[in-house]
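This section describes the prediction task in plain terms. A model, or a person checking by hand, is given the sequence of a single protein chain and must write out its three-dimensional structure as a string of tokens. No templates, partner chains or ligands are provided. The sample shown here is typical of the held-out split.
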Amino acid sequence: MSAVKQKIVVVGGGITGLAAAYRIQKERKLHDLDFEVTLVESSHRLGGKIQTVEKDGFIIEKGPDSYLARKKSMSRLAEEIGFADRLVNNATGQSFVLVNDTLHPMPGGSVMGIPTQVGSFLKTDLFSLTGKVRAAADFVMPKSQGKSDQSLGAFFRRRLGNEVVENLIEPLLSGIYAGDIDRLSLMATFPQFYQVEQEHRSLILGMKKNAPPPAAKVKKKGLFLTFTSGLQSFVDKLEEELISTTVIKGVKVETIEKEDSSPHRYKLLLNNGETLDADSIIFTVPHIVASGIFQKNNLLTSFKSMPATSVATVAMAFPSEAIRKDIEGTGFVVSRNSDYTITACTWTHKKWPHSTPEGKVLLRCYVGRAGDEAVVDLADNQIESIVLDDLKKIMDISEKPEFTIVTRWKQAMPQYTVGHKERLKEEKEKLENAFPGVFIAGSSFEGLGLPDCVDQGESAAHQSIAYVTEGHKGF
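The expected answer:
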């Protein structure tokens, strides 16, 4: 039996990798397990897309700004590390859809664009009478046949018609994935809609039946959560908790090899010329990076052609008096039928009041989506000018911003195209056969949201622990 201590290496220090490393460390202590844990991150900081800037009293998120409260893993993790007292729900308020040059209130009761309150749907001027009649066909239309994957666009167009899709569903879903809904996989993104249709036949009736009962007349909590000190503070706290984990920053994993002396032990070649030995490895890097690491092993090959969209966030700070047309609400999404470059805008000072000093306004806009990414490569001042021109049409802004922060995310939004789940399953099986004890997890694979990434990191952590403690023992 080998006397060498077992080693688990986590590659990638975004929220998935952090969650994996923390869970491994905690389980090791809880069950008195004897193995080493190392986290390797190619950049000089942890957190991946989570980046918070504090400037002049503002708290500005450059990447994600929150997560869905109903997905509990992120909040549970915050509780575990003693950070839950900083959680805050978003302020509720009217949200809008911009079609042509008009802001239309989001119809009441709509769930991801699916109407559940017929009265509100009939009253809205977001759709023509023809569009409303077409959407009503959902009540009598048969459910989809078969269980094969289809695009989000095809599914929703069949049930609700083009107008509802173009003016409501597409802007909402594109805001999440920055993708083309006519290419995105239904089963990899929103399989629950397929399940509702299969169970209730009518998507509208099914969503209405599944909606929670009306709450008593108390102040409604927002659906999203963040931390009063910014998401970066959560990352920093998680990093502090990794007291018995070796954290290596600024070093990139270039490839993986099997050790000559043991087919169940691996060697990671690093770009600084050094190597890391491992018995189990969790790769939480983007799919493009992962496919490169395994290129010479002819694994994860389908991920080479998996698209990823480039986007940019544009945060602008103003004095309150600069906004001459103040609109009551929390923000808007933009229909593709409108002549605007921005895809969405959050009135951050209203949605997250803790983020903005008194007497100030903070607007956070988004540019870039599938098929329209060129704007992301423009200079900061050009992007600022384009975004400001768009905002002036809507809000009548009289001054230039006090400051603007432009953040580019190149190929940062993985696109789960039709057939994604089947391809992922096949690639995981090939990886397991060729490199047992090596796992992949992260936003490229099974969910973009922060809790989705935490779930994947923790699941991979348990798999890795099981492998080194119950499977190969170093013989």
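For orientation: The domain at 110-210 is CATH 1.10.3110.10 (protoporphyrinogen ix oxidase, domain 3).
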